Amino acid sequence: LLAVAAFVAVLAVNAAAESPIKLSLFDSIAWPKPEKTNVVLGLIDNNTPEVAGVSLNFFSSRVESLAGFSFGSLFVKSSELRGVQFGLLNMSEDVQGWTSGLVNYNTGKFTGLETGLVNWNMGKFTGVQFGLVNWDTDKVTGVQFGAFNRAESLSGVQFGVVNYIEKIDTGLQIGLVNIIRHHGWLPVMIIANGRF
Hints:
The protein is mainly beta.
């Protein structure tokens, strides 16, 4: 009953969509083929420019702009995500929300929660990461929990077995090995390292 209520609410809020629902076997075998829809149900592959609602796909989902929830058992790609995305492999460019999968790969700005075995971000990350490996090539503002955490710069906290930062603004590393190349208390410390 709650799922039906949520479904109706999504349809009501986004009534301007070209089609309220899209059914897709493959990207080329779909009905209808709108530019904007509220609900996508896909079997093998789906490629929809804009989804404001729910995208459920058995194997693969590709959405340019997603505001809502997306699930794909193997691969999920969203250029602009405002919501929640689940899949074994998640790819995104700009996120405000939560991604969860075995591997999460983001090329742009990320704000929110990221959970996975490997979380790899190329842009600025603001939020919380839980992963076996958290690898950020830009600034992290927030908290990283993992066996190995890496950030280009940090304003926040890293909890892990091995923590690595190129440059720390303000924050703390707690772990077995803590490495800060620039501006830390020492370049390498056990238990804790940081800067306040």
